[in-house]
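User: We ran a pulldown and think these components assemble together. Before we commit to crystallization trials, I'd like a predicted model of the whole complex to look at. Sequences follow.
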Amino acid sequence: MTEIRASDSRGVFLEGVRVALTGPALYVAISLMGVGALARAAGFPVGAAALSTLLLWAGPAQVLFFGAGVAKTAPPAIALAVSLSSVRLLPMCLSVLPMLREKRTRLPTLFAAAHFIAVTVWAESLRRLPERAREERLPFFFGLAVTCMGLTTFSTALGFWLAGSLPGPLAAGMMMLSPIYFLATTSRAARSGADWLAIVVGVVLAPVMVTFVGGGFDLPALALIGGGGAWLLGFYARRIA
Amino acid sequence: MSLLSGDPTLHPYLALILFGFLPSEVWRALAVVVARRIDEESEVFLFVRSVATVLLVGVVVKIVLAPSKELALAPVWARAAAFAVGGAAFFAARRSVFAAVLAGEATIILAVWFWTR
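Assistant: Here's a predicted model for the assembly, 358 residues in total across the polymer chains.
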């Protein structure tokens, strides 16, 4: 049975909204307030700050874009840096879209879904989608994703207006929120030894890569070597078992 | 050439679309095209899942090791302590994300408060 009624679908959408409001939407909204402050420092209007959340929906890319504005970097160099930082969206989308897709899912729907995928929505999807029936996944996903993005668009503007007025300890806490949340929710989503292996490999290898590779290539290099290695170890472990 | 040269009311938005949105979104669009061939049970899917997970850890490590100016207020041991306390709370509360966030945040806020007082 793949058909579900519109009313069920709305209920599942609202469940996604509710899950978002119990944490993920709040965490991502608070942690992207800094982007608004950065946009203001770069001389952008508040509309551009909010729009960057709607259009880019990728924290590091937004920070790079407005940070480059502050430093008056040449536009082609900005575009390259932004693009490199967003390569991670490729594996993130690739590991969510196959869970969302049904036989009859239309291409525009998948493009729309992909636009919402960034770390927060990716991590929550990995955790919540497998336990839902396939036909419930898309409405649930959109409820979750739209709420996260909507609240964050508002908070980016709020960050623009509040720029510089937050006391030091709270400002530091705000910047630390997403790293702690990202790591916790990804550990929560871990379902197999392979997932834990990827997390451990990342923790061990990332400081090395960030220190020695730099220049925007550190994360792509880490992903291929670390991710590939973790997968290969898991692959042989499954063979032996 | 500055991003803000020319018509100041329109250029920020144009720059955002040309140098922000397009170079970033191209990866999502590519994923939609490629994902049509990937099955949820396949080894390729498990591979990209590993890659994405390691990347996420990389993003986290980068934020902590190359901190923004707000986070740089906290010395590196305080940032490490926030993860240690958050991680301990996570497992103590039976893998609770909320407990990890609460404990980690309390640690970093208190540490910066003591350090900069």
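The first helix of chain B runs from residue 11 to 35. That may be worth checking against your pulldown data before setting up trials.

User: Thanks, that helps.
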